[in-house]
Design goal:
The structure holds 2 protein chains of 2 kinds. Chain A contains 4 helices and 6 strands, in the order βββααββαβα. By secondary structure, chain A is of the alpha+beta class. Chain B starts with 7 loop residues before the first strand and ends with a strand. Chain B has 2 domains: 272 residues, no CATH class; 113 residues, Alpha-Beta Plaits (2-Layer Sandwich), CATH 3.30.70. The chains are: A alpha+beta, B alpha+beta.
Amino acid sequence: MPRTTKRPATRMVQLRYLAHARSGDKGNTANVGLIALEPEYYPILEREVTAPRVARHFRGMVSGVERFELPNLAALNFLLHDALDGGGTISLKTDAQGKVYSTALLRMAIPVPTALARRLARA
Amino acid sequence: MTPAAGRTVRVAAGQGFWGDWLEAPVRQVRGGPIDYLMMDYLAEVTMSIMQKQKSRDPAAGYARDFVPLMERILPDLIERGVRVTTNAGGVNPRGCAEAVLAVARKLGLPRRVRVGLVSGDDILGRLDELMARGHDLSDMETGRPLSDIRDRVLSANAYLGMGPIVEALRGRADVVVTGRVTDTGLTLGPIVHEFGWSADDWDKVAAGTVAGHIIECGAQASGGNLLKGWRSVKGLADPGFPIVEASADGTFVVTKHAGTGGVVSVASVTEQLVYEMGDPRDYITPDGVADFTTIRLRQAGRNRVRVSGIHGGPRTPMLKVSIAYFWGYKAVGTLVYAWPEAYDKARAADAVLRHRLSDLGLEFDQILTEFVGVDATHGRLSGPPDPDIPEVQLRVGVRAHERAPVERFTREIAPLVLTGPPSVTGFAGGRPAVEEVVAYWPALIDRREIEPHVRVEILEA
């Protein structure tokens, strides 16, 4: 069957293929530092991984999200508020200090240019 | 002191927290040239644990591991001229310093050991006076005044910066023992001392602070817990802990000893830089404010990362205070359910347990259920589990201000084995323990209330 629709310019790709991350805690707030695996991915992260989208990704798990940019490190820093069931010693969670919240963010998918998506799939 | 051009000061991390790898400081001292061994022992509620130990034994209240460690490495330190900065003193830095002196005497070293003792951070005994004079010490996160929990406070310590460490080093201390000095101050102090930097040279203070932040969690900057390319990180059985080679111009290199495992790369340093980060332009310490958006990293050889470009701003008029208070009790119980339908069985067991807790009229501040293997770390983001999942651990935690409901909860786990859903095991550990919960209360105080009380003494073995 001949293609009639124009191919989309982007494909959805999970952040794990574009970034690495580390997280920690400050009281009941978890932070996630999201770092581009290659510097050239950073502008895509900056454009697509917005605070509102991250808040949507974590809906029901956090009360609010703040984002800070560190282009010098090809990194974004997210503060996830009320993410830790009270945090510190009060929290009953397995991940009371938010150590692996970082990997939960890496589940999020963002649109990336198709050519790059293909390259990432081959790697 | 005028450092020769091109001279570097090498500060090596020996411990990233109280309980870190015991071999690390020994290998840092013996594995190659360093000038300072920096050891951070204090996390947010560590002080309260130490306060509790001190209330039972006035000679306790510090990181006890530090003393046998000194017994092991003091001869090397003296022979090599390596000096130590540590906050192992906890709530009893004097007791810790005296224990180090006793070890030094016992070892019969070729010269007398000088221990710098920093005190004045402990404000537990001054709280009422400070509050009476209008310092409400409210919780930085919630805004609640300290008076809400005053009768439950277990420890209260102001975070001190590098100042007293520099003073102790100027007094020719071989080992500087402090209470609640910031993690970063333990690295910044030696660098400022060696290069004679001015305390208000804000860019340099920020640079030394960033250096301290990079190495304060030990191997977490040199390949430990590194996500990027984790399979290719070799030699983690013998990880090289990070070392800062600082230059007088405020730039520095992060590296590790030759022949050790792990890796120092732009990725490993970046992951540590973003750890526990807030607003990157506003990294506040007692010594100044560092702007993390100015940091430049460059791989400058194998296991060498050059760090430059750092800007900073003036220190704030306030110091952070770390207060720990008694909150209540908690307990966590677990059981393991096996295939088939493991997740459904675990969920049914949770429902039975909650029904019983409710029928007993027990009141909790929180009951939290997690299904380990299904949702414990990523919550609903994990999606539905594999219907054929081989086993699921049911993990239920409760907390309450009173002990009684938590105590009763711990007796409701085992009965599920014979009175609940089938295919259940994993109860070898017996009844869950009731834990006391000590909570953290971060506050701010005018530094003029603290600084006049800070004392630096030099004690000799």
